[in-house]
Structure to design on (460 residues):
């Protein structure tokens, strides 16, 4: 078997990459999980994906799908074949009556939204990586984002999928309809499947008109995480659902100033909030709530430029924090929103206990918290402490009824924590069912093996 020659027969010589530069490019995700692939294949159509998968399935060659490689959990790295879907990048149809868009998996999320906006529509889920990540990657990760506090995550917006199964069969799952009750919901099975069940080639996504209501962007500084956390709870009680409710801490704000050369006010905690004003008094009510909870300053972005700058600070927070230590590890728990103050206190406690800086930034309005542990990967004592901190962060989230991942997924980073959560919240039977589902779709284990629910025995 000559795998390079055989795949080149399917996709053409130019689309099988084995050169040093390409293999290096595809060997890391954005959290620095590393594996060097044997080769990269870039099919140009659904039929080519099918032929590549048929071949790899027959030969038992593991395949990992690559969207844009922005994964933060090692889900996208492999030492075998990378299948890059970026050549499938067409928007087929924007349907402004049935409210869906039919789109290829390789389309960049932000490009999709630019096209939709021309028609007065948008696709609300907006991971902070939207400027680079793909539709297929966002579906496979069940991604969240900034607007999800109001509009829900990707799972709430996927109507139907065209999928290539591991053996190369092409199937359509679901329907682009407002309602559809026919059969098991296999579409949702692929949302968050992390490339372990098949290749998502095309998607029919729900879209919605851009609201007419003006949006006010507020930001408020607090002297403590607790006050900011309590303000979030009070906003929830007020029944105003902000379009964005993000939390920043001192370290994050300092990092942003460093990255952008700005002089944003730095405090212990800052909330960044978008409010859609349908009645006209929503922003004023939120300002009052923030002040009541101890905000020492509350401001409304005074111009488009200022509003955009604040959004950029949030969108680039992940990159900014990289400037603050030789290494960093980002976590992604989601707790019941009413437990957010307890969870913030736990982060402070662990930071003091282990003597590590844990910066806290995230989509806190929906209980999704991204503690970032700053450390030095070259220092064995730091590495040991980080493992202990992560274990405690996960265990505490699970004990509060939360989840080990709100949006970033499991990949290779959190398999053992996934087992803990499923065992404690759902039971052994659910873990078994999940493994059987994987087996039904992929009995030869060629799709992204050794990750997610394909948990090695020693971790179970
Ligand atoms: C700066 C930054 C900010 C981020 N912010 C957020 C955020 O706010 N919210 C959030 O949820 N995530 C966030 N992420 C994580 C990540 O960007 C998202 O999960 C994103 O949706 C992944 O898309 P991708 O195209 O890069 O997928 P990749 O990283 O290429 O792949 C991710 C997983 O999906 C699989 N996959 C990719 N494409 C397909 C396909 N077509 N068919 C089947 N499987 C596929 C891969 O095999 C892999 O398992 C962020 C990452 C960075 C670097």
């Amino acid at each position: 078997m000559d795998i390079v020659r055989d795949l080149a027969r399917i996709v053409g010589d130019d689309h099988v990459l084995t050169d040093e530069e390409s293999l290096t490019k595809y060997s890391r995700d954005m959290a620095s999980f590393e594996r060097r692939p044997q080769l990269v294949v870039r099919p140009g159509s659904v039929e080519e994906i099918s032929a590549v998968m048929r071949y790899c399935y027959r030969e038992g060659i593991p395949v990992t799908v690559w969207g844009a490689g922005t994964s933060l959990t090692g889900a996208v790295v492999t030492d075998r074949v990378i299948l890059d879907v970026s050549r499938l990048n067409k928007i087929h149809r924007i349907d402004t009556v049935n409210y869906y868009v039919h789109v290829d998996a390789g389309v960049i999320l932000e490009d999709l939204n630019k096209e939709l906006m021309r028609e007065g529509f948008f696709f609300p889920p907006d991971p902070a990586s939207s400027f680079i990540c793909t539709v297929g990657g966002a579906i496979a990760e069940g991604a969240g984002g900034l607007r999800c506090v109001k509009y829900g995550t990707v799972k709430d917006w996927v109507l139907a999928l065209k999928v290539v199964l591991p053996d190369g069969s092409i199937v359509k799952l679901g329907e682009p309809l407002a309602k559809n009750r026919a059969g098991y919901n296999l579409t949702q099975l692929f949302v968050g499947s992390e490339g372990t069940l098949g290749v998502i080639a095309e998607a029919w996504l729900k879209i919605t008109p851009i609201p007419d209501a003006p949006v006010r962007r507020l930001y408020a500084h607090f002297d403590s995480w607790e006050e900011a956390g309590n303000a979030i709870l009070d906003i929830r009680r007020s029944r105003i659902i902000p379009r964005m409710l993000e939390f920043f801490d001192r370290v994050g704000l300092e990092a942003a100033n460093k990255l952008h050369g700005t002089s944003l006010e730095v405090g212990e905690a800052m909330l960044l909030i978008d409010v859609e004003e349908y009645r006209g008094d929503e922003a004023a009510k939120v300002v009052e709530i923030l002040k009541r909870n101890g905000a020492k300053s509350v401001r409304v972005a005074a111009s488009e430029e200022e509003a955009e700058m604040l959004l950029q600070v949030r969108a680039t927070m992940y990159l900014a924090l990289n400037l603050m230590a030789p290494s960093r590890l980002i976590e992604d728990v989601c707790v019941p929103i009413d437990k957010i103050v307890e969870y913030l206190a736990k982060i402070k406690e662990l930071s003091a206990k282990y003597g590590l800086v844990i910066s806290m930034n995230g989509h806190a309005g929906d209980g999704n918290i991204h503690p970032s542990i700053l450390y030095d990967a070259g220092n064995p004592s730091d590495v040991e402490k980080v493992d202990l901190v992560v274990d405690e962060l996960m265990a505490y989230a699970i004990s509060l009824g939360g989840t080990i991942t709100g949006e970033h997924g499991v990949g290779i980073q959190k398999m053992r924590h996934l087992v803990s959560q499923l065992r404690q919240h759902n039971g052994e039977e659910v873990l078994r069912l999940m493994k059987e589902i994987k087996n039904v779709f992929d009995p030869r284990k060629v799709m992204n093996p050794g990750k997610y629910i394909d948990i090695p025995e020693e971790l179970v």
Observations:
- The CA atoms of residues 377 and 427 lie 35 Å apart.
